Amino acid sequence: MIFTKLILAHLLGDFILQPNSWVSQKEKNKLRSQYLYFHVFIHTILSFIFLWKLELWWISFFIGITHFIIDASKLTFQNIKTKRKWFFIDQLLHIIVIAGISYCYKEFNFSFLNNRDFVQVLVAIVFLTIPTSIIIKLLLSSWIPVPETQNTVHTESLTNAGKYIGILERLLVFTFIVVNHWEGVGFMVAAKSVFRFSDLAQARQRKLTEYVLIGTLLSFGIAVLIGILIK
Predict the structure, then answer these.
(1) What stretches pass through the bilayer (predicted)?
(2) 140 and 217 both lie in a single domain
């Protein structure tokens, strides 16, 4: 239970009990901010409270020290452009510390890697992310539509939005199939059709419509096939 308790303490300390004003002050004053030390103190106290064993006092102390080092590093090296990246690095490092402590108490091991079903599902999930995106992109590379007239409507799009939408939809379709809820797949197809209809109608390009349709069917088809194979 050490891992679960420390994760709970981390979530409370990092998200629930840390006001936005504290975050702003820490980013502004960095190591000179008193809220950095308040934040670390809260994590230390929460860890001690949730563990509630005097002989485990060193874990709370270790959590406090490592939390300070990780947060101080983030505040020192992050900037406006790298703020998002450092947020995920920061959270990952905290989780690694907690997992390491749990591993020392033999609460966390890698025996799940010997489970064939788990490894198969993991391989399927990884395949349905970037590898499938690359495969679909290569299959459609010779059909990329180009503007047919100067009156063609152009719409701005988020960077790599299509790739991430495809990854999320494939993972959701795969999940629906694995848990035996095929109606969810129909819901996903209908939902994407509704959102895409206005964009395609505005563009008024048959080639673009066909291109999007082929890409969508490929994406869903691969996810369905992988789901069936895993089942």
Answers:
(1) 35-52, 58-77, 86-106, 118-140, 211-230
(2) yes
pLDDT digits (tens, 9 = 90+) for 65-77: 999 999 999 999 9
64 and 171 inside one domain: no
129: confidence class by pLDDT, cuts 50, 70, 90: very high
Q: Which residue has the tokens 């990780």?
A: 70
Q: What is the pTM of this model?
A: 0.75
